[in-house]
Amino acid sequence: MPTPAPVVRARLDRALAGGDLAAVRAAVRDGPSVVTLADAVRMLLLMVEADDPAFERAAVRWLARFTGECGGVTLGEAQAALEALEALPAPDAHATLAALLKRHRVA
To answer: Quick one: which of 89, 44, 23 has its CA closest to 36?
Structure first.
């Protein structure tokens, strides 16, 4: 029986708050549909800080998801997102991604 979404959401929130990448991954495996784009940015930060070899692939997936889920993303915004992903974990890069999500009302 699948884990209920609210349970997965709570586990994901705890794992992200605690900076526990392994627990984040476990929660995502149990319920990938609960992961927001903002959650995914936080996960990317954990991955880059851990020098995770899967970071680049995950960042590309995030960019594809951002451009696919957020209507009206411009080429300039896609380029800004790409540059910010490449610059992580810099605080200004994280701020750029957060601002893009806010602009598209997904923050």
So the answer is: 44
CB contact at 8 A, 38 and 106: yes
User: Is the whole-model pTM more than 0.85?
Assistant: yes
Q: Which is nearest to 43 in space by CA: 3, 7, 1, 97? A: 97
Task: Give percent helix, percent strand, percent coil of the chain, each to the nearest 5.
Answer: 75, 0, 25
Cβ contacts of 40 within 8 Å, gap of 6 or more? 58, 62, 65
The encoded tokens of residue 55 equal: 């970071």
**Cβ(66)–Cβ(81) below 8 Å:** yes
101 Cβ partners below 8 Å, 6+ apart? 37, 38, 41, 66, 70, 107
pLDDT higher than threshold 80 for residue 11: yes
- Single out the residue of 28, 89, 23, 35 nearest to residue 66, CA to CA: 35
